Amino acid sequence: MKKIFNIFAISATLMLSSCATVFTGTKQTVNIKTDPPAADIEVDGIKVGVTPMDVTLKKGFTGQTVSLKLNGYETKTFQPATTFNPVTVLNVIGILGFPIDAATGAMMKYDPKVYEIKLEQKK
Question: The pTM is what?
Answer without folding.
Answer: 0.75
